[in-house]
Design a protein that fits this description.
about 10% strand, 14 helices, about 325 residues, alpha/beta, globular, TIM Barrel
Amino acid sequence: MAGSKAFIVALEEHYYDADLVALFPGREGKRISEVERRLFDLGELRLREMDEAGIDMQVLSHGAPGTQKMDADNAVRMAKLCNDRLHRVIEDNPTRFSGFALLPTPAPAAAADELERAVTKLGFKGAMVHGLTNGKFLDEKEFWPIFARAEALDVPIYLHPSFPHPAVAEAYYKTYAPIFPEIMGPALGFTVETATQAIRLVLSGVFETHPRLKIILGHLGEGIPFLLWRINQAFSRPGNQGNAFADTFRRNFYLTTSGNFSDTALACSIAEMGVDRILFSVDWPFVSNTLGTSWLHNSTLSSADKEKIFGGNAKALLKL
């Protein structure tokens, strides 16, 4: 296993359910890409590429946009269907796979109930939410029942990107999107949207109401660790309500390495958050497994810190 005895858990590793993907906008007549072929694979190909990189376990999560852009009824129906199917996949290979639930956030009360069912009945380790819910940020009070249930169950919610709000895409990205399409995705758009989502959650007061709520951000924190001092200082200026932003962020958030294998970004994240808040992820199949594991193996971190990031922190947070 890649020359290390560390137990390696990868937390942001995606798959596709064919019935849900068929409902995504713009899928009509679209050919399956090579990345999508991997997303649909929950067997031989996925396991082989895990083994090649020395990854012991993937925590599986459905790819964006999940059910966040659906009507309430279809979101509830598809979330239950997909979670049940994922449960069967995990049952067939419980030493290699675990799962994050798909939540029907367009129906917040049902989403809280589905989180509880997925955790208590299906054994899932938390949930993943993809971007805005039909244009709404998760800090809006209607979504707080989801956070209350996550706190009660002591499981994390993973905030994952989706494509920006259409108005933002039009104003910020349309000039360059035709020739640099990733500007709306991992190059910038994903980061801006997800960092905004996270910052708004802190400002909303949800963590004062639910102080034990745990939130995971991918991509080494969507740029927030680099900006943390400045954000915190700015909110302390006259005219602001004095939110203790940095303290809240450090207490309630965890970061994964998904798709951001940068030594400098990792050093910054550890300096701001502490090594116990950093979890290994690849963002497979959008990034290769071997790129992620080789990077962390070859880093200058101590063996103890590598073991924490590779799997020890995930074991503790997810109770693996």
